[in-house]
UniProtKB/TrEMBL annotation:
Keywords: Acyltransferase, Transferase. InterPro entries: Acyl_CoA_acyltransferase, Bact_Acetyltransf, GNAT_dom. It comes from Actinopolymorpha pittospori. Residues 1-116 form the N-acetyltransferase domain. This is GNAT superfamily N-acetyltransferase. The keyword Transcription does not apply. It comes from the Bacteria. GO terms for molecular function: acyltransferase activity, transferring groups other than amino-acyl groups.
């Protein structure tokens, strides 16, 4: 994972795996053989946004969606990750799932709006 999407001393991938072990998150990774293409995580505790938490208490959130290489974007990898996250939520009996994206990420927002 670090070779495909280096996080340096922050060790984000290792931290995400550890949070998954604790049951707080599900760390989803899209693969092509042994090559990771992208990832996202599902925050099961509830959404980071206070506005969403207030409107939908306990609603989990899809967060941190990233397709590593620019030339692979637009090929359905992000969609597959989102659909897998939605399936995992349904498996847990969750009716709603939020998505998190910064205002500085219009392509993610466009994807979420297209899939909603």
């Amino acid at each position: 994972m670090e070779q495909a999407s280096p996080t340096g001393p922050n060790r984000h991938h290792a931290l995400k795996v550890e949070r998954q072990r604790m049951g707080e998150y599900t760390y989803l990774v899209a693969w092509n053989g042994d090559v990771p293409l992208g990832h996202c995580e599902v925050l099961w505790q509830e959404c980071k946004s206070a506005e969403v938490r207030n409107a939908y208490p306990g609603c989990p959130e899809i967060n941190g969606l990233l397709v590593y290489r620019a030339e692979m974007r637009g090929r359905g990898i992000g969609t597959a990750l989102i659909r897998t996250a939605e399936d995992r939520a349904r498996d847990r009996g969750v009716e709603w799932i939020g998505v998190g994206a910064g205002d500085d990420n219009p392509s993610a927002m466009a994807l979420y709006e297209r899939l909603s």
